[in-house]
Amino acid sequence: MASQTTNPAVVDDQRSAIAPADTVLEIQNVTKAFGEAIAVREFSLSIERGEIFALLGGSGCGKSTLLRMLAGFETPTSGAILLDGQDVAGTPPHKLPFNMMFQSYALFPHMSVEKNIAYGLKQDRMPAAEINLRVGELLKLVHMEEYRNRKPHQLSGGQRQRVALARSLAKRPKMLLLDEPMGALDKKLRNQMQLEVVDIIKQVGVTCVMVTHDQEEAMTMADRIGIMNHGELVQVGSPHDIYEFPNSRFTAEFIGSVNLFDGRVVEEEPDHVIVDANYIDQPIYIDHGISGPAGQKVRVAIRPEKMVFSKDKPDAEMNWAEGSISEIAYLGGHSVYHVELSSNLVVQAVRSNAERREVKYKLNDQVYVSWKADSAVVLES
Amino acid sequence: MIGTLKKLIPSARAGVVAIPYVWLTLFFLAPFLIVFQISFSESLIAIPPYSALIQYVDEMLTVNLNIGNFLLLLDDDLYLVAYLSSIKIALVSTLICLLISYPMAYAIAKADPKTRNVLLMLVVLPSWTSFLIRVYAWIGILKNNGLINNTLMGIGIIDEPIHMLHTDFAVYLGIVYAYLPFMILPIYSNLIKLDGSLLEASSDLGARPWKTFLTVTLPLSKAGIIAGSMLVFIPVVGEFVIPELLGGPSTLMIGKVLWQEFFNNRDWPVAAAVAMVMLAILLIPIIWFNRYQQKEMEAQS
User: Given this model, what pLDDT does residue A312 score?
Assistant: First the structure.
């Protein structure tokens, strides 16, 4: 759906080149307390110019509070928010060069699409002719030219979203804030809009901070993701890093599904580590070292799609376990198998259904689950 | 057989739907038609004190429509002046009510939920006592040796009492006092529904709080303002008790004229005509209001 047209008028005066490690916004030790409850705790983060950063977390993790502090709706209890080196914490929203796209879009119901988009420009006392021109550009950018005079209630969900996006981009904000951007759309439209919105944001080149509880949305849209839990930042990284190398049980479980094994380090070398897991007979061999002495208790995570199983017993000494299939969930493209090990531990394995006719596994089949040396990750917490 | 019988007995659903229709027919349509008919009759010294519209004498069915009552209304300045004065008083007091109510409703809507209920209670509480008693209380407050004058004279601010009772001022005061809740409540119920994120969006886009109020809050509370204004304006036009008790001889309101025609002159037909014209005048804002509401409903769906 996302079109390839680039409107030079819109892109011209925006930063098109993204300089590496060029920090726009620096959040320093920000804490926000509501009475006794602490919503955000000692939060520090740098946002690079031109990136799309997603704050991902469950409800009540403090991500929305953080976004509202950036927008100026809340004042941090302590800490600083530096925009190009200047502390803007506590500045009222109408003085901040940030614009927000609200979860419910918050389009003014008594104004036409055109008036909605022009609203921010009018506050800046831009001359009418210029406003008209700018609104035209924005409508073109979001492919809504024909809807200029419609009222919000005459638009579909996706169209409202486009108008909301155009409105928040109208003033060329230094930073665009998105609050659960796809929260109000159904799943199919959501996937389509995610790509379209990213396309538009990249076209304009604006720095963007978004907040979402939907990991798929964060992975699709963001350049970098920050995982939040209990008001704190748990892990920051690219979608790939966060998925493949989670640093904590929380991240591992929050993003995708994961098999977790508690165990003890029995051999620790710079290039590999061997972990004796409590409920698996064979030890786990991991081909990268960890910083910790032998005997240390650790937790090992293995993603279900990295678990393979077969009816033949593996030759290797390590990295496999024996069990029987206790549940099968057929999901079309792939199936999820639950394998109950002899220790009663249930592990998940995902098998893609690439072939129509392949060896079918049935319930209660005896299988051997195995994984490669680089599949497992040792979690720090 | 049973099937046809069942069809004849109205269902419970039809019964429920019928209640408002029956109610309106009995208590609005029937009295309205009676008054309407009286307005076209002639005044008689009899019981009832007006002529019948339809007569059947000597195999002759005659329908006598007397439009003299309406012509009289046009002829005599008194009625026109009374109508205009009523409308003026209603307009001015609606405006005053609006100016006082909007900030009150706004403050109540912005208050935290606990205080909000107390404040709402305080708005409604006075109407738990009789309307008449409350208007009488104003006499005690406003009269020459009443609360205000006695206090002011007691502390030596004035030597002579200020004449307040039986003036237009007292009428406005009484009306605004009595009708304030009818303005506050619709505006409040409108403001409380206002989506807070719209105000945040406005602020986020660079509008100062006052600008946000003018461009977002005020236009979006239009429905509440109109509803409140109707609830005040319409009954005030026909108000009788307040101008009768608090107003002076110069206070001319159509409600008072109506009363005089009925009870002093015993001219029911003219009184009925006065009532009919008043209804016609009030119909204009009512129809306009209905249209507006319909448009709003369409916009919301």
Answer: 86
Q: Which residues of A238-319 form beta strands (DSSP E)?
A: 259-268, 273-277, 284-286, 297-302, 308-310
CB contact under 8 A, B216 and A153: no
What does the block give as tokens for B91? 């307009």
> How does residue A16 score in pLDDT terms, banded at 50, 70 and 90?
very low
Distance from CA of A157 to the nearest CA of B (A): 14
pLDDT digits (tens, 9 = 90+) for B225-255: 999 999 999 999 999 999 999 998 888 899 9
Contact (CB, 8 A) for A31 and A76: yes
Which of B93, B35, B11 has its CA nearest to residue B262?
B35
Q: Which two tokens stand for residue A270?
A: 């710079």
d(CA A134, CA A152): 19
Predicted confidence (pLDDT) at residue B300 exceeds the cutoff of 80? no
User: Rounded to an integer, what distance in angstroms lies between the CA atom of residue A54 and that of residue A176?
Assistant: 12
d(CA A50, CA A20): 10
Cβ A102–B207 below 8 Å, yes or no?
A: no
Give B112's contacts in chain A (Cβ within 8 Å): none
Q: Which of A184 and B172 is assigned the larger pLDDT?
A: B172
Residues contacting residue B45 through CB under 8 Å, at least 6 positions apart: none
Looking from the CA of B198 toward its CB, the CA atoms found within 13 Å total 23
Cis, peptide link before residue A8, omega less than 30° from 0: no
> How many other C-beta atoms lie within 10 A of the C-beta of residue A342?
12
Q: Report phi then psi at A84, rounded to 5.
A: 45, 45
Q: Do B205 and A92 touch (CB under 8 A)?
A: no
**8 Å CB contact between A43 and A233:** yes
pLDDT band at A18 (very low <50, low <70, confident <90, very high): very low
pLDDT tens track for A269-309: 878 888 888 888 888 888 876 666 777 888 889 999 999 88
Say how many CB pairs under 8 Å bridge A and B: 65
- Nearest-Cα distance to chain B for A209, in Å, is 15
Phi then psi dihedrals of residue A146, to 5 deg: -75, -10
Asked if A66 and A43 touch (Cβ cutoff 8 Å), the reply is yes
Q: What pLDDT sits at residue A21? A: 65
Could you tell me the pLDDT band of residue B293, with boundaries at 50, 70 and 90?
A: confident
- This prediction has a pTM of 0.82
E-strand ranges in chain B read 54-57, 60-63
The single-letter DSSP state of residue A313 is P
Q: Which residues of A touch B208 (CB under 8 A)?
A: 94
Average of per-residue pLDDT across A129-139: 96
- The first and second tokens of residue B99, run together, are 């100016």
Which helix (H) or strand (E) element contains residue A226? strand A224-229
